[in-house]
Write a structure and sequence with these properties.
- The structure is a homotrimer.
- Chain A has about 350 residues and is an alpha/beta fold.
- Chain A is built from four helices and 39 strands.
- At the A-C interface, helix 2, helix 3 and helix 4 of A face strand 21, strand 22, helix 3 and helix 4 of C.
Chain lengths: ~350, ~350, ~350
């Protein structure tokens, strides 16, 4: 694809500074860009790289100045990058229609406008919407529902009766709807509690590779609209994740915990079950969350603390050996003072 | 399904308080239950919800009182719930027999009473017992053994020569028998040590989605009877997990570590290799276990401590900034006292 | 297989102490070995087991003495074990050639010397080298490249355009090339940034079960020669891992972080994005790495500290309740001293 800076600026709603007839034919990172490439500055700390890049143009935030460089000024260069990538690299699956080598069980309702690859399996009474793309090795269980324009990459598993919304992306190895971990007398009888609920995933959700979302014991596990979940995350039965939340890799959320809207959770964080996390909460990576968090809080640590307090604790944690040495020294000094005081008292 | 309270109480071995001809046709959580539903109180802290539920009846522990509510009193309401769910929601796979679209290699021995879905793969000399259910995308390697009535959900992988007992449940994405992580001169030559052992999983084990259990270097990795393992757990080569143990999600157990019977491990805990954990040990979530634990101990923390001591340490950890401030203050005071003492001494 | 000790010593370049005509027909661990077995001592702490083993011979390091035992002295018994296991247990896949039941898309170039199992899927224009083994359920995307003699075990997924080198081993459930976790306005709009880069895995890499390696946003995610990665590891977009590095299970490495050569990372460690880890760095298990590490450093902790300092901090952390008690006690003593001093001053 070839576009001039003027055309790109028009497409992105930005303003060109420099030669607007410059021709762009690819998008590369600021280090790797060469002539003919456009690049971007998403973070002000990379501004210093601006003068070193060989890119023919740069997507940059308002008030960026760079002598001799062609810029397109946009409000959010990272979002603009996304838009431009979508134009330069349209998503292609290289197939359309329902392959005769897919295995579609009797009673499944598959839109003729869906793409089903060979070796996919669609269960009884499952419904597959139009524009859906289902890759090889995908299993869609009986009575499951896949909304329009969703993409299930290779080797995804959706157990029976789970509901996937529109424009949902499930990356390879995702498992939706396996049994929740529920046993009576755990560690003794381990009597299985049948997990008879389901998983509901709303529109515009994206879920990373090998993430697992368990079906509810009763009722539903619910991932709401526009939630984004990274790889290898564990979502237990009956968890609810509020819309627009973003969950980084290897997070684990225990049963029945509810997250509000726009919650952001750093990687490898764990949460106990049956707690409530408010809206707009931010949780640092590798935290251990064991109790409710009110809306708007920023927390971190293990156990959790308000973010600023946590940083103070960590600053002290690092100084523990010094603190201990000071303490030992003080102890001796005080003992000495006491001895001397006693002598004085005796003298007195 | 429709049953009266009298019938349900008889099935569960419980006692009705209230109208025993009440008709029940579903099971729901205490918040979601409506007329015609039965619900349950598994935990005494939910007793306060008893008066608010719209359920027609409640499974409750002995000595529960709730005016105007129909109760079935049972010793363990959660276990009773499990039993009742099994009755109301019998597990159905919607198929039986060996599909001609399954790929069964020559020399495999598959019970005609097993259910093999299309697109499953059964290797040479593998044995599949009666009542086994094998979903699409499952790979059973050469010489592997799957005991009677086990269920392998979609996209499970069992490498060659591994042994799975009876009534075992492997959820989607489970990998049994991949090579253990064994290399000579790690970080330099990384010379692979062939992993020529196997995995043995005994009867009544359940393993959660995307959990991995590596084959032994020599000998076996061994998951004993009735062990329950949650999702995304890593079990390294030559680990042994004693019967009835329960391992929560995202736990990692390093090579050759042995767990006793009825061990309970909280989520995201890690254990080093070559240690022994006794029977009936309980380990808190997110702990780092680096040495042996005697039977019956409760431990937590990173590094591990006896549980009570760990809680005390955490209580202090949170107070570190205050402790540091106090320490600084004391230091100044002591210095001042010393100065004054010196003055006194000089005067003296 | 049957070999004399003399033959084995010759094969390994070792020296027999004892009866060099002893016949060996299997290899077992020191506890499980019996007559006819050879075993090994990889770690000096197991030397005490030497006299108890029933093995007919032992691979042992120089200067090992064991009366009445047959030894083969080799420089590195663990590496020798690996070599001997390769001889006794040659890797067999039980098939050869491209199965007619594999699904090979038009335009794919598959070496006739490759082994493709039934139910594997090879995308358009993908290239599969000679000696490659591709198990059932594997998905190789369009334009992907698999180098000679690599093994992709069951249910591996390689997304389009990813490059896998020679002699690479991908264990079951590995996902190479899923989209990196990149969204503009995260937690609000969550606007997807198309991930248009790829993954490059160099020769002799081995990757454990259910590990995920995301494709780059732009450019490549790069796993260099002879890197070994354990199970359930998360490698984010644009990460680079230098050659010969070894990464234990459940580690998570965030976007654009670069590891040098021969880096060793303990299990469950997390790293933030955009940092640089030097060559020959060692990182303890369960660490949280948030900033650059220079070559040759040994670090641990959460937050990270030089290893020795970290151990000192942990030693104090355990003593926190005592420290706090001491602090409280000192505070009282100092207050008392001040009071007495004040009295003295008043008197004075």
């Amino acid at each position: 694809m070839k576009m001039t800076l003027a055309e790109i600026a028009s497409f992105l709603g930005g303003t060109v500074i420099g030669a607007d007839d410059t021709i762009i034919n690819n998008i590369r990172s600021i280090e790797e860009a060469n002539e003919g490439d456009i690049t971007f500055i998403a973070n002000k700390k990379y501004l210093k790289k601006l003068n070193l890049t060989k890119a023919s143009a740069i997507l940059a935030p308002p008030q960026t100045a760079a002598e001799g460089k062609n810029l397109i000024i946009v409000a959010d260069p990272y979002a603009a990058l996304g838009k431009l990538l979508t134009l330069f690299y349209p998503l292609e699956h290289g197939r359309s229609g329902v392959s005769p080598d897919a295995y579609v069980e009797e009673g499944a309702i598959v839109s003729p406008e869906a793409t089903i690859f060979p070796r996919a399996f669609i269960g009884k009474r499952a419904k597959i919407g139009k524009g859906v793309v289902i890759y090889p090795g995908v299993f869609v269980g009986n009575n499951a529902f896949i909304g329009d324009d969703s993409i299930l990459y290779a080797n995804v598993t959706v157990y029976h009766s789970c509901i996937i919304g529109k424009r949902v992306i499930l990356h390879s190895g995702v498992v939706v709807g396996a049994d929740g971990f529920g046993f009576a007398s755990p560690g003794k009888d381990n009597t299985k509690i049948p997990q008879v609920g389901f998983v509901q995933i709303d529109d515009d959700v994206e879920i990373g590779a090998n993430t697992t979302i368990d079906r509810a014991a009763l009722g539903r596990t619910w991932i709401q609209r526009n939630v984004k979940i990274d790889n290898l995350v564990q979502i237990a039965h009956n968890v609810v994740i509020g819309e627009d939340s973003a969950i980084a890799a290897q997070v684990g959320i225990s049963g029945s915990t509810k997250l509000g809207k726009s919650v952001m959770v750093g990687g490898q964080t764990g949460m106990v079950g049956h707690i409530n996390i408010g809206d707009n909460v931010m949780i640092a990576a590798a935290s251990s969350i064991h109790k409710n968090i009110k809306s708007g809080q920023i927390v971190g640590g293990s156990p959790q603390l308000p973010h600023k307090q946590w940083l103070k604790v960590l600053a002290c944690w690092v100084k523990l050996p010094e603190m201990r040495a000071t303490l030992d020294e003080l102890k001796k000094k005080v003992e000495k003072l006491q001895e001397q005081k006693n002598k004085l008292s005796n003298k007195g």
